[in-house]
Specification:
heterodimer; A: alpha+beta; Jelly Rolls; Phage tail protein beta-alpha-beta fold; 3 domains; seven-stranded mixed sheet; seven-stranded antiparallel sheet; 7 helices; globular; B: mainly alpha; 2 domains
């Protein structure tokens, strides 16, 4: 992808990035951002470029980034730099500007950061909710309504309308009738749960009370697990869940790493836990199970057997 | 690649290669790295947009080589910090060897892009784009106003996304 932009466009794109990540970014600003994107192809390219770089940044474990990039310069380097500066500084402009390597295009309009949920009322009266670390696009026109899930999880209350609603995941498109759905993007497939209405893939329906993996077609259709959408109410509900799986779920709502040692991975846990206070959930674990929560840094937590 | 550029670099290479390697060796104390960095210096010249006007070829070469040398030292330092950070990672969640290399490349690039920004500006940017913290949270974490957070984030973003 071409990643050269005029300074003006770069400045505008950065302005929109910072605004869109602001705590008071509402629907009016969202519309203004969409106008800006629609106004020029270069705007769209610049926006996609930022999303691509961010995608890469998010892929790196944050404790490692902080520890590596914020290490103080060593005395040896300081000496070396000082010695170099004595040689004098001439300009050598135009040298060594590398290009970013590109990742597959990403251009998300709506994004919810780690640990937060967002609720948006769409133009047709549908309600879109994004779970933690999720990104989605919404494109409505005269012929159709399109929602695209880039990453994470969404809940969609689809309003009745003459236009079909197409939901795109990483694997392809689904058609949703009016109803209530939960869709989560995993690596290589998405999990679609139908609470009300019908979801169709290639003409094959998935009915209310069912859930299935979507890989372009339905796979492993099963009875609906209502707990999948507990996040909408800010809860994580477990019933005889493996501790390792429970922590993996909880880890979606926190920054940094959360894991456990193999010796406690198969312990079982049940209950409803409020997602807004994951620290408290970790404290409760120590009471409910024979485990100890060990913190390496604020962003690095592992659960181990409590040997005492 | 413009042919004027490659012939200029070729000329520099033939006339000053030994001198440059010696210049680097004196600063590194290691013949092997000096040869590598001399190569890097010519590679960097070949990436230029146009042929340089050469009045003082050796002063020019030294200027470019200095940058290469700075990067080399910085890379070593980051590598050390990176390995130290990795050593603290519990084994079960440690990245594979291949992932380690990919992560390190990303870190190097990020470091290069954010180089020269004040520490707080860098930190604000990392908290926002790597950790996904909200701007209010960053303001609290760093003890600065929301307006300052936005200013810092914009400044770092211009660098990181657009090298401006």
């Amino acid at each position: 992808m071409n990643t050269t932009f005029s300074p003006q466009v770069a400045e505008q794109a950065v302005h929109w990035l910072i605004e869109s990540q602001g705590d008071d970014f509402g629907q009016v600003q969202q519309l203004a951002l969409e106008h800006w994107l629609q106004a020029d192809q270069e705007h769209q390219r610049a926006w996609a470029h930022i999303q691509q770089v961010n995608q890469r940044l998010r892929g790196v474990s944050s404790p490692i980034v902080h520890a590596t990039l914020q290490a103080p310069p060593s005395p040896a380097r300081r000496r070396a730099l000082k010695a170099l500066l004595l040689v004098g500084v001439a300009s050598a402009t135009g040298l060594g500007l590398q290009q970013h390597s590109s990742l597959p295009g990403l251009m998300a309009d709506y994004r919810s950061p780690v640990g937060q949920r967002r609720r948006m009322q769409l133009d047709d009266g549908s309600v879109l909710q994004l779970n933690t670390r999720s990104a989605a696009d919404v494109r409505f026109d005269r012929q159709q309504r399109q929602v695209r899930l880039f990453e994470g999880e969404l809940a969609l209350q689809v309003a009745n309308d003459s236009r079909p609603l197409l939901l795109r995941t990483g694997e392809g498109a689904l058609r949703l009738d009016s109803g209530r759905f939960n869709v989560r993007q995993f690596d290589g497939y998405s999990l679609v749960s139908v609470f009300e209405g019908v979801a169709s893939a290639g003409g094959q329906p998935l009915l209310a009370g069912q859930q299935a993996r979507f890989t372009g077609a339905w796979r492993s259709v099963s009875a609906l697990d209502r707990n999948v959408a507990a996040w909408v109410d800010g809860m994580l509900v477990a019933s005889q869940m493996r501790l390792a799986d429970f922590l993996a779920e909880l880890g979606r709502y926190r920054h940094g790493q959360l894991g456990c040692s193999e010796r406690v991975a198969d312990l079982r846990i049940s209950g409803s836990y409020p997602l807004d206070d994951s620290e408290r959930i970790l404290q409760m674990l120590e009471v409910a199970l024979p485990v100890r929560v060990r913190r390496f840094t604020r962003y690095w937590v592992t659960v181990e057997p409590n040997i005492s | 690649m413009p042919s004027a550029l490659s012939s200029t670099v070729e000329g520099l290479y033939h006339a000053h290669h030994n001198w440059l390697t010696g210049w680097l060796r004196r600063r590194l104390g290691c013949p092997q790295s000096a040869a590598d960095l001399a190569q890097d210096t010519y590679l960097r010249l070949l990436q230029a947009r146009e042929a340089p006007q050469l009045i003082e070829p050796r002063a020019f070469l030294a200027t470019v080589a200095k940058r290469v040398l700075c990067n080399h030292f910085r890379r070593q330092e980051l590598e050390r910090a990176y390995l130290q950070a990795l050593a603290q990672v519990p084994e079960e969640v440690a990245p594979s060897e291949e992932q380690k290399a990919v992560i390190f490349e990303t870190l190097l690039e990020l470091d290069r892009l954010l180089d020269g920004l004040p520490p707080l500006v860098k930190r604000a940017f990392l908290l926002a784009q790597v950790d996904g913290l909200g701007q209010g949270e960053i303001a609290r974490e760093l003890g600065i106003s929301l307006a300052t957070v936005k200013r810092y984030l914009s400044k770092a973003a211009m660098r990181c996304y657009f090298a401006l």
